[in-house]
Amino acid sequence: MEYPSLDTPTAGAFRFNTDSGQLEIYDGNQWTGILSTSPEMQTGGTRGVFAIGRVGPASVNTIEYLNISTTGNGTDFGDRTVISRRGAAASSRTRGLLAGGYNGSGDTDVIDYITTASTGNATDFGNLLGDARTIAGLSNSTRGVFAGNEVPTQLNVIQYVTIAQTANAVDFGDTSRVGHQTATCSSPTRGLIGGVFGAPGDSNIIDYITIATTGNCADFGDMITSGYGGRGGCSNSTRGLFAGGWDDSASAITKAIDYVTISTLGNSIDFGDLNQGNSSFSGCPSSPTRGVFAGGYAPAKTNIIEYVEIMTTGNATDFGDMANVAAYGSAGSCSNGHGGL
To answer: Which helix (H) or strand (E) holds 1?
Structure first.
């Protein structure tokens, strides 16, 4: 029998449990087994899932998916339980969560879940702390975290759920600034929340949290340019990317992609460019090697999908098209192979 250390382990620590014969990781609260699975075993490659959010002027509950390891067009997955845009997503290897949003006349606090390896309609998971619009999501293999809010006023709240359970969200802490339209990415340990559209004015600040704990954000660094609204964020376990958005300094939508190393602190560095300026993406899922930027507003609604190789630098390459022409206002995107897993 292996007895526990007298010292509290740090989040992310490993041990070998001699009773179960299993390698375990400490998630900040408890020791949990490491699953011997991968996106390749589940779906033949990392699957990116998009809750479309909006087609033309109308909010919709449509969900699409694609295989990030290949190139091609999006395929129908199923439907959310609610019609929604401007929501957020988080995911583990097996389950994706779709949370909050606006249906064109009102807001929702509903959290849905899907089984990423299958296709079909979403199922009710629980509820956010309150109605939420234009929020952002990130996750590791255990927790889904949702940050920011636009209703009933600009908010800096962070909340979380345990992905493997079904339950309502719990308070996590606060971001450094009040606002919404933030871009997020994560490693298994850290979650990054970059930029904000809010009051007083837009910001290029990047905050970070330790996902396995609770508490307020700490400063990570800054994006290259101030005032990015509607940026897209994605990552593998090492590098986080931020793309597109509204550049206040140029009064225009930007093509810029920049990156950070998640385990360090510091300002973002130039990565390359999208093929077209874009903001308010329909989704930015990722695999261990690729980041995908899909749909959005450029400055008209678009269904174009582009991708980059995360550990290189350079401009984006065409991937295919979404099945729906999606305007700004995604209801969230996730994958079973992103940087937090």
So the answer is: none
| Residue whose C-alpha is closest to residue 240's, from 198, 182, 303, 299 | 182
For residue 261, which amino acid is it?
T
Per-residue pLDDT of the chain (341 residues; tens, 9 = 90+): 455 555 678 777 888 888 766 788 776 667 777 666 778 777 778 999 998 777 777 888 999 999 999 999 999 999 999 998 889 999 999 999 999 988 888 899 999 999 999 999 999 999 999 998 888 999 999 999 999 877 776 668 899 999 999 999 999 999 887 665 688 999 999 999 987 766 555 678 899 999 999 999 999 999 987 666 678 999 999 999 999 988 777 888 899 999 999 999 999 999 999 998 888 888 899 999 999 999 888 888 888 999 999 999 999 999 999 987 765 567 789 999 999 99
Nearest to 303 by CA among 46, 89, 52, 48: 52
Helices (H) and strands (E) in the chain, counts: 1, 30
pTM for this prediction: 0.87
CATH numbers and ranges of domains, the chain: 1-34 (no CATH), 46-335 (2.120.10.80)
Decide if 195 contacts 206 (C-beta within 8 A).
Answer: yes
| Torsion sign (Cα): 117, 118, 124, 130 | positive
C-alpha closest to that of 231 among 210, 208, 259:
259
